Amino acid sequence: MRFLLAALVAVLLCAMVPLVPAPQAAAQGESPTVLDVTKITPSVVGAGSPGEVVITGRLTNTSDHQINNVEARVQRGNATTTEPAVQRALRDDPATVTEPAFTSVADRLAPGQQIPVELRIPLTGPNSLQLSQPGVYPLLVNVNGAPSGGGRARIAQAQFLLPVLATPGGEQARPGQPTETSMLVPIVDFPRLEREAIGGMPAVLVDDQLSASLAPGGRLYDLVQAVTDRAGPGSPVGNALCFAVDPDLLITARAMKDGYLVRQPDNSLVEGIGAGAAGLWLSKLREATNGRCVMALPYADADIVALGRAGLPDLVKGALDGASLLRDPNILGVEPRGLLWPVEGSLADPAIADLPRTALLEPRALNLPAGSLSPVRVRGQNMAAVPIDPLLTSALDPLHDTELKVTTLSPPQNGQLSAQNALGALAFRATQGQVPGATSVLAPPRRWNLRGDDLRALLDGMQQLHEAGLIRLTPVPEPDPATLPEADLDYPVDAGSAEIPQPVLDQLAAQNFKVGDLYVSSQEERSSPVQRGQVTTPLRNGLLRGTASAWRGKPDAARQWVDRATGAINDVLRQVRVEYFEGQVTRIDSADSPIPLTVVNDLPITVSVVFRIPQVPGVQVQHDFGGPVTVPANGRRPVWLPTNAQRAGKFTIDVTVTTPQGGTQFDTTKRLQIESTNYGSLIPMLTGIAAAVLVLMSAMRIIKRALARRRRAETAASADAAEPVEPTDAATNGAPQDSTPEAPHIATTDGDRNRN
């Protein structure tokens, strides 16, 4: 009985205890916290380095539940001895051989809470990394905790390579030959400029995110400032850097500096807020690039391979014209180097245009022996191909081997780890992974997402490796193609599949024809400093934004940007128009009265136009003046269209203004209302017909009367012949009679009769 009562009480107590739900992860497959490493000291362990590694960062709880007893430790794996081992250490969890004790980080971490983290791990001794010889070691930061209602588990981690040149108290061994090393600094963003300032129309950006990136603390500002701080002109690191600048970014920043509008989600326009930041950033970039290696990327980082394969060589040439913008003293005022860094480091056909003489290509895009990084001459071309170091590319860009390469900011987070991995990979290349006779070119992701401190740490580490004799910092090589062995291009299949699709390129080609047609139909005004290229080049550049590397594998985004460029082209074409007022009626009083028109040109260049007017029954409009009509820049041109109205009435005439050669339409077709009071040739025709009818009727009346007289005369004669002659009284009485017969009296009316 007591047992039954105890069981009943236990059941009731369990029913009264509220159930605690199991903790939900931040997302399936994701850790409930994020560890952001902001500093690693030292980044390169050498002779004279402190005896411990200090890792600083921030830990954020991204889950919906509290995490208790948060602890962390730093574990070490074996030194990497092969290039594949380095690649695995960059991507996979390393197999660790040391497991020091955990260090308490926090007793509890509430949802959304962020706390600072600082971990110290000795290099040698107990509870340390236990380093005994130089090498490149993978390290793992292991953070454990117990989410509410769950067991203890790993809640975050970070892994990176630590180059160890010398252990504490040991001597550093120098390689026989230092590895020549260069690095690109990409200054690239996403396309933002919907329309440049043309013909009085202000510049329009699709958003104002660039203003934050150009301001102090922003991504692009920090990249430039970090180079200025750590790699001054003439320094070893400074000589090894080469800025890879997108001319479209410079044009966008200049447009922002001069004042711009921002497109809102409801399609309205508001003033942008980044004019000051853009001006400051341009001055910082001008200072940082002064006296340095600078190369121009294709405009908007356009995919020149896709343009060439689509048969658009003029757009390829236009994309490569951005070098002139770098020479502009109002922008950078530098002389760019003859270098080409195509999208994904790949080329399909170098004959698509007059390309620079040196191309920086990935080894997979060249038919090279395995592991070779030596420059070659592209077969059949006067072009040198300098391979980009794939190991360093993987270290700098964690998204390189994914579909997101070149299309998004990289690294997406933890830029410090990317910089640290690059130092580890570079140290390995200079020691166990040397490639004789080659220069290791570090090519970061095009939209490099490093904080200023991350880049400073990378540049400081490169300087330390240079001083240690492992690497020799040199400019980006530009070898003479005539001195190099030949090799074939090998365009990767996956690179071709990510190109802008052909339908989008067809749409782009149609709009590019309009731009070229406008160019050949215009001319400079002597009194205006504006050249026609200043109107058409921004339109072409807008089309190139539709082929930016950011849209590879994203056809909808590419099509959207081509549509934006199309809108800008139409905005410019609408500046040439026939002046027309709604409800206006033109009256014609005579057969040859002309129609007055006024063509308005709000562009700063002179434009030649022709009229396209379809035939309208009842009226003929002559619109061929023996050649195009020239409309001056920012001016008006009155025109009289000879018109022949064939009848009276109301007519509707459609007037379209186009370019003379290609027939590109400027503004929309204007529908003119014409009212004619002229009868034309109808009145003489009716008069002639009426006169003929009158003459005919008169003749018929005369003939009818003549016939009537003849009939009556014949009738009277017949009657006289038929009656007998009776003697009169005079005859009877013997009186003499007149022998002359009396002329008969012909009746002309019914009441006018002959009487005896």
TrEMBL record:
InterPro entries: DUF6049. Residues 730-740 have a biased composition (Polar residues). The chain crosses the membrane at residues 682-703. The keyword Cell wall biogenesis/degradation does not apply. Keywords: Membrane, Signal, Transmembrane, Transmembrane helix. Residues 1-27 form the signal peptide. Residues 715-756 are annotated as: Disordered. The keyword Ribonucleoprotein does not apply. This is Glycoprotein. It comes from Saccharopolyspora elongata.
